[in-house]
Amino acid sequence: MDLLAYFQLSLVEIYFVIFIVFIASIVRGFNGFGFSAICISSFSFILPAIEIVPIILILEVIISIFMVPYIWNKIDWSFVVKLLFGIIIGSPAGVYLLKYLTPDVTHLTVCVLIVFFSFLLMRGYINQKINNNYGKFFTGIICGALNGLTTLGGLPVALFLLATSIQPAIIRGSLAALFFLTDIYAFALSSFSGIVDVTTIYRTVPLIIILPIGVYIGDKFFVKSKEETYRKVVFYFLIFISILGFFRIVSNF
Fold this sequence. Notes:
This protein is mainly α and 253 residues long.
């Protein structure tokens, strides 16, 4: 019982968190993204957002390190850097818009758009014209703004990469590298703002053991999958996360 007091969670809640982190790790190992989306959507049933975010940021940074051996040679650093410039501009804008826009309504709008564009891409839509510096920079701005508003910044980046028909290995590696850098930045801001406390550390440390196992399994699935299979899995995942977020927000109204 004393051990549970450190986590400030019941035994059932601890098992639930472990299970979700394991599943999210497998998805991250396969997709290159999606860890935060799964964890935030699931943890929100037992924890407030202010307690969820620092845990996920720590785990995101660490899981990215575990992914390095699998993705290093497949990272498009030019793409990552150009996106980062856009994110640097978009992130403050997203935080500023929080004063005027309702995050839940914005979240719902994004979910609907993600589902729409996912179905469009599943029908074979490809647009190579947006695969240029302006397209990458603009995508970065949208990513940063949405991250500040709804924590869904990774979804439009994934859609951009899929729409330009980039190879799955490049998509996976570039997304993992991008989120590693942005999450370090976000965690630093969280630390300075005082939302990372001792309880956060107690809750996070035991979960680190699960990450390399999930990444290893996810990577095995990725290696065995075909390009078309990867694209379908990512599409279905985007739709699932969007629908899950939709119902979670509607249930809070």
